[in-house]
Design brief:
The structure is a homodimer of 225-residue chains. Chain A has 225 residues and is of the alpha/beta class. Chain A has two domains: 118 residues, Response regulator (Rossmann fold), CATH 3.40.50.2300; 91 residues, Orthogonal Bundle (Arc Repressor Mutant, subunit A). Chain A is built from eight helices and eleven strands. Chain A has a five-stranded parallel β-sheet with strand order 2-1-3-4-5, sandwiched between helices. In chain A, strands 6-7-8-9 form a four-stranded antiparallel β-sheet, covered by helices on one side. A two-stranded antiparallel sheet of chain A has the order 10-11. In chain A, helix 2 runs parallel beside helix 3. The two termini of chain A are 41 Å apart. The model of chain A has no long low-confidence stretch (mean pLDDT 81). The structure holds a DNA duplex (30 and 30 nucleotides). Chains A, B: InterPro entries: CheY-like_superfamily, OmpR/PhoB-type_DNA-bd, Sig_transdc_resp-reg_C-effctor, Sig_transdc_resp-reg_receiver, WalR-like, WH-like_DNA-bd_sf. Chains A, B: This is Winged helix family two component transcriptional regulator. Chains A, B: One of its GO terms (biological process) is regulation of DNA-templated transcription. Chains A, B: Keywords: DNA-binding, Phosphoprotein, Transcription, Transcription regulation, Two-component regulatory system.
Chain lengths: 225, 225
DNA sequence: TAAGTTGTTCAGCACGGGTTCAGGGGGATC
DNA sequence: GATCCCCCTGAACCCGTGCTGAACAACTTA
């Protein structure tokens, strides 16, 4: 975990830095707004502690610029003045948390834990398989970046195959995961869907294993079976 | 945006509820820990305001149980006592923010905005989506800079879609986040709102995914990945 | 009270897409 | 190589989903 501390009081800055290092962070520090802004702009921090009253560039301005430039690390704001209008301005500039001086180090650490915890919860929801990418949350399919239009049942089926790629999935297993209740056994719906999918994403991406089922594979890097 | 307020003081509870409703949230409230825990356990809230001193079940316990059960909505903790050890306990139980009574309503709202923003992975108060910008604070919508007039329900819906843009949002998810408690299942209100929104912001900005739901997209720069 | 907003309901329509069917191809096994 | 069975494919059917216009109800504002 990399942390940046932007605080103009050298004593407090050093004290914070040491506390964070003890807590396991790799810490950089800056003593004014311009330095702080530059560092946050060039290094990928996991969390930033930012004082509002800074020389050269105001803390709110620093934060606003970062956000405009697309930096989205969590930022915790510090200020000596307990004016709630400033807090509101800080939050609306894109701050994630706020602490009024003086504060207990334990509280700062606890808040930072909360910040990094939540920031780490962002998981990408796309499954990759040799140029084929499946956005499970957006229900979209791309093949080498180009969008492919699939219907909801086709998507469910492809998504299930992708979750278990390189494994053979039986027809009944597919049916059970696509349909809620049971379903007419002697029907060739699954085959029809496989056919339609193959037409859309390429014939060689779904292998059929006679008598067993289907398997989603990466067509170029064919594994030695 | 659905919010839950768990606060045993009936006056404060009502006051908070009204303030949040004015700010555009659909609010449920609970007056003790057990009720609060149950509601948070069964309904998909976007943010929760939780008092620590509660009858029947302590606030920290409520929060710990939610986290154990996998509820990951952002939680803002309230307490009358300004003891930082309690704050630390609250954070480590999984709280995302903390506010000491008494507080300014504006500060609470700013913190809640920051929480919901962060939960959705955004860091600014306005959400952009290909020429469409949504001011979550002022409840305004602009398209290429020109203001678009939307009603409050339309705004809630668009706002929720924008918080989760590129994701497919089911009709029930929309209903659950726009209306407080349950709601007539077989009603086509959502479709009507989608239709009206499309008429205002452009047909191609809200895609319908048959059988799954709706998705807010940038109509020109179709994302690649 | 009248006029204007805003939210909800209803009915009709269009069409997408899931399902079915019939027929043909091609492994597998002997 | 013959036979069987599994699988593929194209097309047609038809039901359900979603869209739309309009009317109605609830509520605000003049």
């Amino acid at each position: 975990m990399r942390a940046l501390v932007v605080e103009d009081d050298p004593d407090l800055n050093r004290q914070l830095g040491r506390a964070l290092e003890d807590a396991g962070y790799a810490v950089d520090s800056a003593l004014d707004g311009e330095d702080g802004h530059f560092m946050g702009d060039t290094e990928p921090y996991d969390v930033v502690v930012l004082d509002l009253g800074l020389p050269k560039m105001d803390g709110v301005t620093v934060l606003e610029r970062w956000r405009q430039e697309g930096r989205d690390f969590p930022v915790l704001i510090l200020t000596a003045r307990d004016r709630w209008s400033e807090k509101v301005a800080g939050f609306d500039a894109g701050a994630d948390d706020y602490l009024t001086k003086p504060f207990h180090t334990e509280e700062l650490l606890a808040r930072m834990r909360a910040l990094t915890r939540r920031a780490a919860g962002h998981t990408t929801a796309t499954i990759e398989c040799g140029g084929l990418s499946i956005d499970t949350r957006g229900a979209r399919v791309f093949i080498d970046g180009a969008p492919v239009k699939v219907t909801s049942h086709e998507f469910r089926m492809l998504s299930y195959l992708a979750h278990h790629q390189d494994r053979v999935i039986s027809r009944t297993e597919l049916v059970e995961h696509i349909y809620d209740q049971d379903f007419d056994r002697d029907s060739n719906t699954i085959e029809v869907f496989v056919g339609r999918l193959r037409k859309k994403i390429g014939t060689d991406r779904i292998e059929t294993v006679r008598g067993l089922g289907y398997r989603l594979v990466d067509p170029v890097a064919r594994p030695v079976s």
